[in-house]
Amino acid sequence: MATITLNPGKDRPVQQRHPWIFSGAIKGVQGYVGRGDAVDVCGADGEWLARGTWSSGSQIRVRLFTWDADEALDETLLRRRLERAIATRAWLGYAGESAACRLVYAESDGLPGLIVDRYGPYLAVQLLTQGMAARAETISRLLADLLQPRGIYERSDPDMREKESLPPGEGVLWGEPPPEQIRTEQPGGLAFLADLRAGQKTGAYLDQAHNRLRVAAYCAGQNVLDCFCYTGGFSIAAARDGAASVIAADTSAPALAMLGANADANGVAGIEPVEADVFKLLRQYRHENRQFDVIILDPPKFAHANNQIERATRGYKDINLIAMQLLRPGGVLATFSCSGLVSADLFQKVVFGAALDAHRDVQVIERLTQSPDHPVLLTFPEGEYLKGLICRVL
Ligand code: SAH
User: Fold this and answer.
1) Residue 279: pLDDT above 90?
2) How many domains does the chain have?
3) Cβ(37)–Cβ(58) under 8 Å?
């Protein structure tokens, strides 16, 4: 196995168990290391620190798996980590035959580069580093053995694969291909259909499962506008909990079609789907002097790199400002950002700026984060990306 030596002064994050080593921290490599190979990491003084997988070409050159010199980076380690991740989700209560949840959340579960989402009897897998891509066959075999799924399907995020100089990864890894619609049970007794092959992400936004229930608690008897609704997660929770009316807006026609099927699956009626660009729709509603009691803003990731943060904050401010203008006094704004690069602090500042410009007093009622099947490891705060504020707009 090759050994990586760090530059002086770069030991500390590794000793504190941060799992990433950037290319700039590396002084040299002793021995041959190929794409995805296991490597040992030593400090500038030669002391052994940790072991991980190598990613040639990527900015994050090594992902660390163990800080125990006696622990090999082999199938036994992968099996133990998978067992631990699966046990955590069972402990959290994601247990039923048709449960949907994130079973493995990469670094947070000690498995950098690996995401496994369960949709009832099918698994959707993302292999996002050279290290995980090289271990695809082992991972599939272990998952098949531990979970006996009907099928394992790869849906790796193409942008992240590209950063690792990996070709797009999609297709059946094991067992049967998933059907077009899998019916899943999600927290709060809601049923959602997921399309693992053609849906966004791996089929659903599992990270919002708990937040939908929190937001729905403010929707009984209210006129609700669900912006960036995808397949209706928030809309259906709101309708089920007694919303007087729900308008659900998204640019994706297939997502809105699935929203109709999801409404049927939950026995709720009356959600009005609107195929529209939310930036334009909000302006149109303002022009028409429309008012709402509850507005949900759950936009896609606006910041994919550091140089996009400023543009992203302008986007967040724009939609939050208009949403505040559309709320009746005492209305509720449930606003989210899933851009990991926009901190919770910065996001709150953006919402603050919107409130100032809208001339409204705004109180934060609840702070939300990603659902508990996306845990955050304390040594890896980067694992936290979703933040939400439920605000009362006076
Ligand atoms: N709220 C959803 C998840 C939203 S994901 C849930 O709970 O499941 C973000 C959504 O925004 C995607 O469905 C995407 O199609 C949609 N989208 C992206 N840009 C948009 C725009 N400008 N206007 C409307 N929808 C947009």
Assistant:
1) yes
2) 3
3) no
Structural domain for 60, as ranges = 2-66
User: 77 near 67, Cβ under 8 Å?
Assistant: no
Share of the chain above pLDDT 70, in %: 100
| Residues 59 and 82 occupy one common structural domain | no
pLDDT number for residue 146: 98
194 in a domain, yes or no? no
Going from the Cα of 320 to the center of ligand 1, the distance in angstroms, rounded, reads 15
Backbone angles phi, psi at 115, to 5 degrees: -120, 130
Determine the atom of ligand 1 nearest the C-alpha atom of 205: 8
Distance between CA atoms of residues 60 and 320, nearest Å: 34
> Does residue 192 lie in a domain region?
no
Q: How many residues does the chain have?
A: 394
Residue 16, exposed/middle/buried by CB under 10 A (0-12, 13-18, 19+)?
Answer: exposed
**Distance, CA of 28 to CA of 169 (rounded, Å):** 31
Same domain for 249 and 371, yes or no, is: yes
Q: Is residue 189 part of a domain?
A: no
User: In whole angstroms, how large is the CA radius of gyration of the chain?
Assistant: 22
Q: Which residues are catalytic?
A: 338
Q: Judge contact between 92 and 114, C-beta under 8 A.
A: no
Specify whether 145 is located in the same domain as 242: no
Whole-number Å distance, alpha carbon 369 to ligand 1 midpoint, is: 18
